[in-house]
Write a structure and sequence with these properties.
Strand content: 35-45%
Largest sheet: 5 strands, mixed
Bound molecules: zinc ion
Length: 153
């Protein structure tokens, strides 16, 4: 998810550009899922502040009934990115430690930031619905599907 921000870095502080994002990405295990929403790039005195309201939509399997379902992970981003080279003269710039950076060609890559924010927002327990009944512990029948006859003990 790369954005050429050279031009925006040469604009006055406070300039805002808005994008509608619709991309696919993964969390590292090769599984891809769509991420969509609105992104704002705001020129700050030192770099670009990215604010965004996004939603990742992924296939998950329920921790209780093991059924697969669509997990929506909404997340909000607010993160400043710092250029590593001067947008006018091209010389190297110092950046704060541990900050997200814009590469020497003024390309801002959002992928790693999105990955980190999504991981933070992933629910610990992934349930197909809050009231999921899970599986019968005697026969493994999916209890969400209704009553069943079970040879209890
Ligand atoms: Zn379930
Ligand atoms: Zn049963």
């Amino acid at each position: 998810m790369r954005f050429d921000v050279g031009e925006q870095l040469r604009e006055p502080v406070g300039t805002i550009h808005t994008y509608n994002l619709e991309e696919r990405m993964g969390l590292g295990e090769g599984d891809e899922f769509p991420v969509a929403g609105r992104l704002n790039f705001i020129r700050t005195s030192q770099g670009l502040l990215i604010t965004a309201d996004l939603e990742a939509t992924m296939e998950a399997s329920c921790n209780r009934c093991l059924d697969s379902f669509t997990l929506s992970v909404p997340f909000h981003i607010e993160e400043e990115f710092f250029p590593t080279s001067d947008p006018w003269k091209g010389g190297r710039l110092e950046t704060p430690e541990d900050a997200f950076t814009i590469d020497a060609h003024q390309v801002l890559d959002l992928t790693e930031a999105l990955r980190q924010y999504i991981l933070l927002q992933m629910p610990m327990k992934q349930l197909c619905r809050p009231s999921c009944l899970g599986l019968c512990r005697h026969c493994g029948h999916n209890l969400n599907l209704g009553p069943h006859s079970c040879p209890r003990d």
